[in-house]
C-alpha cells in the first residue's frame, strides 16, 4: 500500500496546511510529532528496513521502539502537502535510546525538527500522566504571541485572562496554560523545561516565541491551540480599542461551566474564596 495514502500522512498534510493558512507557521516555524501504531505503519512499510540512523543528542529510553511521524528541520509547513516525502519523516527510537532510525521520508537528505528534544521529552511527560497521548504540536500563533508582549507572563494570570475571553475556554483547557520564560530554542534545556510543564499542562507557552500543545489526536491538539489563539485574538482586539472591558465572564460563571460540563479545572487559577485546592478530585 502506498504510504502517501495512509491516514496519518494525510492528517499531517491537512494539519500543516491549515496551520500555514491561519498564518501561525511562517517559513520554517512550527513542528509536529505524532506517535503511530506499529501495526498501522507495518501496513505500508517494511519495518526491518532502516534508510539512515541519526543521532538525536539525548536519551529517550522510555520511547525505545516507538514510531513517530515528524516534520523536518528547516522545512516549511507551506510545502508539506506538496512534498510529504521530503518534508516529513517516520522515525523509530533505536534500542540505545538516542538513535532515530529513519524508516521513511526526508528523502532529500534532511532530518527531523530541531525541536525533537522538546517533542520527545514532552511525549514522555504526557504519556506518564495520560497513556493515550499521541501528539505534540509547536506553533507560532499570531495573537497568542502578540499577547505575550503586553500581558504578564504569569501562568495563573495568563490562563485567567484567556478563560475570560471565550465562554468555552475553561471547558476546552481546564488544566490551564503553563508559561516558560524566554529560553534558547532547539536545546535539550528548553526540552526538559517544557516536559516538566507538560506533566501539569497540555498547553505550554514559550514566552515571545510560541506555544506547545499535547493531545490524543492531531485534531484535538490543533483544537487546543486554536482555542487559545481565538481567546488571545479577542483579548488583542478588545485591547486595541483602548476601551475598558466592561463585560467579562465572571469566576462564578466559570465554576458553573466547569461543573455543568464536568471538567476538572485548576481551582487555584480562579480568584474565589476556598478555591486554593488545585483539583476537584
Ligand atoms: O522549527 O519553530 O522553534 C522552527 C521552530 C523552532
Ligand atoms: Zn518555534
From TrEMBL:
What cofactor does this chain's UniProt record say it requires?
Answer: Zn(2+)
> Where in the cell is the protein located?
Cytoplasm
- One GO cellular component term noted in the UniProt record for this chain: cytosol
In the UniProt record, does the keyword Zinc occur?
yes
What Enzyme Commission number(s) does the record list for this chain?
Answer: 4.1.2.19
Q: Which InterPro entries match?
A: Aldolase_class_II_sugar_metab (IPR050197), Aldolase_II/adducin_N (IPR001303), Aldolase_II/adducin_N_sf (IPR036409), Rhamnulose-1-P_Aldolase (IPR013447)
- Provide the reaction this enzyme catalyses: L-rhamnulose 1-phosphate = (S)-lactaldehyde + dihydroxyacetone phosphate
Q: Supply the Pfam families for this chain.
A: Aldolase_II (PF00596)
Q: Which UniProt keywords apply?
A: Cytoplasm, Lyase, Metal-binding, Rhamnose metabolism, Zinc
Q: In which pathway does it act?
A: Carbohydrate degradation; L-rhamnose degradation; glycerone phosphate from L-rhamnose: step 3/3
Q: Which Gene3D superfamilies match?
A: Class II aldolase/adducin N-terminal domain (3.40.225.10)
Residues annotated for Zn(2+) binding in this entry: 138, 140, 209
Alphabetized GO MF terms: metal ion binding; rhamnulose-1-phosphate aldolase activity
Which residues belong to any copy of the Class II aldolase/adducin N-terminal domain? 10-236
Where does it mainly reside? cytoplasm
Which residues does the entry assign to the active site, renumbered to this chain? 115
Q: Name one GO biological process term.
A: rhamnose catabolic process
The keyword Metal-binding is assigned to this record = yes
Q: How is the cofactor bound?
A: Binds 1 zinc ion per subunit.
The cross-references to NCBIfam families, in alphabetical order and at most eight, read: PRK03634.1, rhamnu_1P_ald
Q: What exactly does this protein do?
A: Catalyzes the reversible cleavage of L-rhamnulose-1-phosphate to dihydroxyacetone phosphate (DHAP) and L-lactaldehyde.
Q: HAMAP family, from UniProt? A: RhaD (MF_00770)
Q: Which family does it belong to?
A: Belongs to the aldolase class II family. RhaD subfamily.
Name by which UniProt lists this protein: Rhamnulose-1-phosphate aldolase
* Gene that this polypeptide is encoded by: rhaD
Amino acid at each position: 500500500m502506498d504510504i502517501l495514502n495512509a491516514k496519518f500522512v494525510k492528517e499531517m498534510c491537512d494539519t500543516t496546511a491549515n496551520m500555514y493558512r491561519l498564518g501561525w507557521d511562517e517559513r520554517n516555524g512550527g513542528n509536529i510529532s505524532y506517535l503511530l501504531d506499529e501495526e498501522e505503519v507495518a501496513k505500508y512499510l517494511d519495518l526491518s528496513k532502516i534508510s539512515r540512523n541519526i543521532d538525536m543528542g539525548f536519551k529517550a529510553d522510555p520511547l525505545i521502539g516507538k514510531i513517530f511521524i515528524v516534520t523536518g528541520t528547516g522545512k516549511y509547513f507551506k510545502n508539506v502537502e506538496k512534498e510529504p516525502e521530503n518534508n516529513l519523516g517516520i522515525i523509530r527510537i533505536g534500542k540505545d535510546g538516542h538513535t532515530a532510525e529513519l524508516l521513511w521520508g526526508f528523502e532529500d537528505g534532511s532530518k527531523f525538527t530541531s525541536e525533537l528534544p522538546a517533542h520527545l521529552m514532552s511525549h514522555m511527560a504526557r504519556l506518564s500522566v495520560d497513556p493515550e497521548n499521541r501528539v505534540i504540536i509547536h506553533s507560532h500563533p499570531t495573537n497568542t504571541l502578540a499577547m505575550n508582549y503586553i500581558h504578564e507572563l504569569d501562568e495563573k494570570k495568563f490562563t485567567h485572562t484567556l478563560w475570560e475571553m471565550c465562554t468555552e475556554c475553561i471547558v476546552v483547557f481546564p488544566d490551564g496554560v503553563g508559561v516558560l520564560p524566554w529560553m534558547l530554542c532547539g536545546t535539550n534545556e528548553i526540552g526538559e523545561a517544557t516536559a516538566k510543564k507538560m506533566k501539569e499542562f497540555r498547553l505550554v507557552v514559550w514566552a515571545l516565541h510560541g506555544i506547545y500543545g499535547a493531545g490524543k489526536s492531531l485534531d484535538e491538539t490543533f483544537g487546543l491551540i486554536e482555542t487559545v489563539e481565538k481567546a488571545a485574538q479577542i483579548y488583542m482586539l478588545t485591547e486595541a480599542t483602548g476601551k475598558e472591558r466592561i463585560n467579562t465572564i465572571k469566576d462564578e460563571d466559570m465554576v458553573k461551566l466547569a461543573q455543568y460540563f464536568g471538567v476538572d479545572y485548576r481551582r487555584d487559577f480562579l480568584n474565589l474564596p476556598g478555591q486554593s485546592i488545585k483539583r476537584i478530585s
